Every structure is written in C-alpha cells, then in structure tokens.
Amino acid sequence: MLIGLTGGNGFLGSYIKQYLTESDSNLLLIGRTPSVLMDVDDILIDTINSETSYNFISVPNVLIHCAARAHIMDDSSGDPLAEYRTVNTAGTLNLARQAAEAGVKRFIFISSIKVNGESTSHSGAFTADDERNPLDPYGVSKSEAEIQLLVLAEETGMEVVIIRPPLIYGPGVKANFASLLNLVSKGLPLPFACINNNKRSMVSVDNLVDLIMTCIEHPKAANQVFLVSDDDDLSTASMISQLSKACGKSGWMLPVPLPLFQLVGKVLGKSDVINRLTGSLHVDITKTKTLLNWTPIMSVDEGFKKTADALLQNNAFTREEKND
Fold first, then answer.
1. How far apart are CA 27 and CA 48, in angstroms?
2. Which of 11, 28, 57, 242 has the fewest CB atoms inside 10 Å of its own CB, making it the most exposed?
3. pLDDT of amino acid 232
4. pLDDT tens-place string over residues 88-106
5. Is-catalytic flag, 138?
6. d(Cα 152, Cα 99) in Å, to the nearest integer?
7. Angle, helices 137-156/92-102, rounded to nearest 10 degrees
C-alpha cells in the first residue's frame, strides 16, 4: 500500500513519516522540499492552496493531509480568516479533488477540536457528532474544509476520514506546552493550586499517530468524524503536578484564587489566555473507541515522561554547547 503524506516536516507529520518509514510502508511525500529518505517518492510543490497542481505519477491508496496554516495566537495579519481559508479550506479541497480524480481511495484530514468550539462546561464534553461551533478564523477554516470534504466524498466515492485533535504534545513540541514544561522543569512554585476543577483533554503524538494508522484501513472509519485524546482528562493543577513528576520536581503550587487570575487577564489584555488556563476543554472519545475498537496506547504519565525526558536532554545538550 502506498501512503501519501502532506506536512511531513511538521511536528505531527514528522512522527507519521518516521512511523511509516520504520514500518516499511511505501511513502509518497508531498511538500516543498525533497525527502532525504531512501525509497521515498516526492511531489514537490511551492505551497498548498487553491491553485496548486499535483502530479500523481504514483497514486497513493491513502492520503494523510497534515499540512495547514497553523493556529497563531494574536494573529496580526490584515485578514486572518482569508489567509486561513486559502490554505486550510481552499487548499485542502483542491488537493482532495485532485486526489479523488487520480484515484486515491481514502483521504485522512487532520482537523482541529476548534471546529467544536473553544471550551466546554465543567460537566460537559465535546463529541464528534456535536454541531460545529468554531469561534476563531482557524477553526472556521477547518470547519469549512470538513463540510466540503464530506460533500466531495458523496460526489466522488473517495472515502474521507476527519480527526479533530486537541492540544498535541510529545518530544519536540513547541509553543505554549513547551513553555509551560520549561517553566515546570525549573522546580519553582507555580500559582495553579486552585485551578483544580477544570478538565483539559490532550493527546500524545504517539496516541494520535496510532489512531491515524488505525484509520488508514479500518472499514468503519470511512466518512466519519473522530475526536481523540489520551482519555485521561486533567485539571490544570493535576497537569502541573504530573509534569513536575515527569521532570523529577516536587510540583509545589501556590493557592492563588481564580478571581485574581481573571483580574490579571483583564489588566494585561490576556483574558483569552487566562480562560484557556482556568477553563475546560473536555472531549468524549467514546465514538472513536467503540466504532474503531481503539484505545490509547500510551498513558498520560508515559507521554509526559517521554516529553520531559526529551526536553531535559535537549536543555543539557544546549548548555554543553554554550560551555564549549
């Protein structure tokens, strides 16, 4: 079986690429730069948008689409929605149409939990069958792509699988999770003890890749939407405690009241950041587990330990380089 992959140089894509090459799968990489891997074919493109042409000389049985304009905090572009749509909506549909015309059997689209919305109540959870409720340009662009992909599936017969991950973490993760882990690794007391009633769903990159591999051939995955997580949802305080343990630190936290966080957020104009820190984003993966007979292969403790070990090793290597 030939597997196509876009976004192979990104965080998630690099793990998918590694898994497929180590499992001796036939791999076709679609992106800007040629592969340095042996026995891997390439389709070289400038960027993924509505104008890109793909020369499917080798037609993959399944195409995994990870490439996207990533979510950017405080996006300063003049028209963020238009820019997200160019890549995430129009670009995705252009790729999918050409894939269907070439004879690709299944198209796996890595979407985002932001299609469901930004937060859940303490007692509720997002499900795969909820009405879409994206609230920011990134989520809107992914939602529109999903809708059009499912229509395309009906029109062409190409099977579409949609996966909406929440925050993805693992060795090499960047952005907010990396910043938080760096902070925790210093062993300083952090002010999160009172944030202990919210629920945050996350997914280790190992669990997400395993689900994607399941969706490559599982007959019941066709034309379905799936949510994914580690199936072990944590409060912010619990997350800090478990990250601290993974880093070999005590995890002592200060009991700063929630209203103080909210006040600081308003004063600094960072209410959105505070809401994500103190609020809930809880996903229900019952459909994924039941329909696909799938369960996460890695626990949160294992995922955090693997991520923390990689960070600490990288920090130690960086210190050695500076000292040389």
1. 19
2. 57
3. 95
4. 999 999 999 999 999 999 9
5. yes
6. 11
7. 20
